[in-house]
Amino acid sequence: MASGDTLALRTNWEIYADTPQRNDRTSRVRPRSLLKPQILLDHERSRAGQARTHPEERSKRTWLLSDPSGAVPLLQRPRGGCKWGACGPALRVCRGAASEAAFPYLINDNWDCLQLSGAYPQCTGIGARSLPAGLISRLTYEVKCDGAASTGGMVQVGIARVGAPHVEEVPSKEDDDFLAAHNCHRLGEASYPLLGSVLFTSMGDIMANGSFIEVLSAGAGHKLQQRDDDWWSGAPTWFASNTETVNVLLEVDLARGCVSFRLNAWSEEPLVISVDGLVDDDGSQRPWSPMVSLLAVGQEARILDLHVVTDG
Fold first, then answer.
1. Cβ atoms 77, 306 nearer than 8 A
2. Where in the chain are the domains?
3. Using CA atoms, how far apart are residues 120 and 294, in angstroms rounded to an integer?
C-alpha cells in the first residue's frame, strides 16, 4: 500500500470536532463516556487528603531527619474513633460502601427540626470515642446534603459532654438491629442527659451550654459579636448550598480549655475560643465526645478523622 493511501485511511480529525463533548472522541460509531484516568483520581484524592491532614503530621518526618534528638509529637488515632456511639430517633447510621465502613454516615431522612431546642436528642449523634482529658484532639467532620431531599436547615458540629445512663436504661440491642451492628445506642434525653456542649453552627453562631465563651482569635476577616455569655455570632458561614460538601476541622485542647475552628483545610487561619469548664481539673467530670446535629431532612455527616496529639 502506498504511503498516500495510508494517510487517506488515517483518522479524519473533523470527525473528532463534530463528536459531542461528553464522549472521548475515539470512535464515531461507538463513542465512550469520558472517564478520568486513575492517575488523576489518585492525585485528587491525595490533594483532598492533604487538605484534611494537619501540617504538623505532614512535616514530622522532616523533624526526625533534621533533629533526631528533638521531641516529636506523637499522633494516635483511636480505634473506632470515626464511628457513632448513639444517635437520636430522627437519625440513622448508614455504613455506605465497604471502603467507607470505618467512616459511617449519620443521616437525617425523616424529620425536620423547627426549633433549636429540639435538636437534642432527636436530631443529634454522639461519637463512639471520647476525647482524652489533658490532650489535644483534632476532629475532621464531613457534612453534605442530598439536594433532592433537602428542605434546608442548620447543621451543628462540635463536642459535648453526655451523662452516662443507668444500666437498666440502656436500650436493648434487639430494638434496632442496624444500630446494634454498629454498637450504637438510641439517644434519649432521659437516658443520656446533655451536661455540656460547644457547638459551631452553619449559620455562623458559636454556642456553649451554660459556659462563658471568650474569643481569642476571630480568624481572617471575621467580625464576631457577643450576644450572650455563651453565644457569639459572626463566625464563618458554611453549608449554604444543598449540593455543598464541607469539611469542618476542630482542634480541641483539653489542657488549656481552647477550641479552634477551620473550614476545609488546616492551613487556614483558625478561629480560636476559650470555654469555661472545658478542662477537667480533678477528673470527676464526664468526658467530651464528638457531636453533630442535623436539623433537616437530607443532611448527612460523618467523622473523617480523629487523632490525638501527645508529646514525644
1. yes
2. 73-310
3. 10
Residues in the chain, total: 312
Q: How far apart are CA 32 and CA 24, in angstroms?
A: 6
For 124-160, how does the pLDDT look when each residue is reduced to its tens digit (9 = 90+)?
999 999 999 999 999 999 998 876 445 567 899 999 9
The CATH architecture to which 73-310 belongs is Sandwich (2.60)
CA distances to 17, 29, 31 from 21, in Å: 9, 15, 11
| E-assigned strand segments in the chain | 74-76, 84-87, 91-94, 105-108, 124-127, 136-145, 155-162, 185-186, 194-201, 206-208, 213-217, 225-228, 231-233, 246-253, 258-263, 271-275, 288-294, 299-310
> Helix, strand or coil for residue 137?
strand
Pair 106, 125: CB distance under 8 Å: yes
pTM recorded for the entire structure: 0.75
Q: Measure the CA–CA gap between 88 and 120, rounded to whole angstroms.
A: 8
